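Inputs:
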Amino acid sequence: MAAVRVEAVLAAAEEQEAEKRRSVTVEKELELEYDLGNLLAVDRNPPVALRGAGPRREELLRALARDNTQLLVSRLWELPVERAGGAGGPLVAQLPEPSFRLPREKPRPKPRPPTRWEQFARLKGIRRKKKTSLVWDEQAKEWRRRWGYRRAGGDPSRAWLAEVPAGADPDEDQFARLRREKRERVARNELNRLRNLARAHRAGSAVAAAPLHPTGHQDRDELRRVARVARVSTASLGRFQPRLPKESAEPPSRNAGKKRRFEPLLGNLAAERSRQLELLRDMGSKKPVLDITRAVNKQLRQDEAEAAAANKGKKQSKRGKRGRRQQRPGRSGKKSGGRRQPQQQKRAGGGTG
Amino acid sequence: FNLFCRKPKTKRAKRFLEKREPKLNENTKNAMLIKGGNANLTVTGVLKDIYAVKKPFAVLYKRKNITRPFEDQTSLEFFSRKSDCSLFLFGSHNKKRPNNLIIGRMFDYHVLDMIELGIEKFVSLKEIKSSKCPEGTKPMLIFAGDMFDVNEEYKRLKSLLIDFFRGPTVPSIRLAGLEYVLHFTAVDGKIYMRSYKVLLKKSGCKIPRIDLEEMGPSLDLVMRRTHLASDDLYKLSLKQPKGLKPKKKKNISRDVFGTTYGQIHMQKQDLSKLHTRKMKGLRKRRAEKSAEDGGATPKMPKSA
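Outputs:
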């Protein structure tokens, strides 16, 4: 008996709850998608009822809107709430972050590259010293700001005394010198600021094509390099490009502009054969590869040449161009004599490697 | 780019420029409402009503500007740069395209997306006699209809409309202040935009029952031409800067019962130098020890 009564009571309670909720529940085929951060709800159900409707359209639209709004508001009411502004304030719900992805207004902020000073400071480990904003001024006997309006050091334009420093010309106008130096400092700072800005701007947009544009200050080698790049930048890689009037008429070598040259794999078989045989012969012979006497002579001559260059630097050479030209054949002779050794070694190394 | 512009000399100018530069968390997007060459009553009415909805994040230009946004976008971009607005609504009217409305947005002061809509029916704020909600209310946005997910152009239109009407992003909202709802339905090739005022009625439970009262401007729109951004430009505009993602706290884990766990990493300890509790009673006394050792050993220092 009691059990039946309890069950009946529970069922009645549930019925009551359902009654209460009936006014706020809405039946939908597909669930809506919510983005509570934007107060947004998206209803994917196809609006079948509205397709044919003519005069009843407004009512149907309004009914649909009411249902959707009811669902959205139910969701919003489930958010965590608090009372804003103390006990008596309005009830406020905490909104989550908006999840619907919308495009930005402006592109992402790029971190600016460090200035020259910042790079140096990072390298050396120099950190910013925190400075007080006010400094005690002895003369004025009060706290003045470090720089700016009414700064601590007194007004520089009203300085009535400028000491002549120890090694300076006594007739020089010290005030003019101070003003000129300030102007130079300001100009130098402005130049550095513009350079830092240009560097930042250049880092942002890859301006790698700068050397290919003619400036007024390119030397012969740069221009030759640029001309070579321009010639090769055609669809047929420069094969059918007519030569410029003063350009040398040689086919472009594969090693143009590179410091190391690599021989092609199957080029000259005879040269390769001779190279390998020479290597084996050097390895098999008892004679040492390094000729001691020649190396010592070379070192001695190098020292003499350095000493001569140092002396030449000290006294202004009276010989002039003719004298230097007379010296040259001798020097080149020494160089070629000495060079034969390292070249041989290099080839030996190339053969084994 | 400021290389050839002088740097700002006043704090006010500096603040002005800082407000306009790209940031991590961006400002609320402003909209500019522009009248085209031949703008009739309907079109001007629409622009005025939308201005009323979007205040204070909109500027309404009163003079007519004779431009064609689909052909030449330079004047739009110039306006956007000057007034720092990234959304625009351009209304015009001619025989070929009557009651034309172009809604669009900008990225980096260049046109990103533009969609041309034709106004078939317009009921303005003044015609509907009812109480209005206060200016600047954040509206609830509801999109109904499967077209908004199926068709690419409708998808962009949905994104545009959300961008246009969503207002400032707020962390919390007053529940009693949810008064305004904008409902967009896509049916039969048309888009119906209706605005209602929300009345919260008592229901039996915590959640109130909603009743709607038609309030604001209602528009029946038809999609005409579109000028959508290419996929990669759109993807670029969607990219968010890295600083926005919250940093994940490492070394924190929870188990089923809610206990928080973390690992403590200690350095290697020299166990011989550990200081343990010293039991004074257990220490060997000097007399006992000398008796043990036979008295031959000298006094040894007490070891801990």
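Remarks. Helices of chain B lie at 11-20, 41-54, 74-83, 147-150, 152-165, 231-238, 286-293. The mean pLDDT of chain B is 86.
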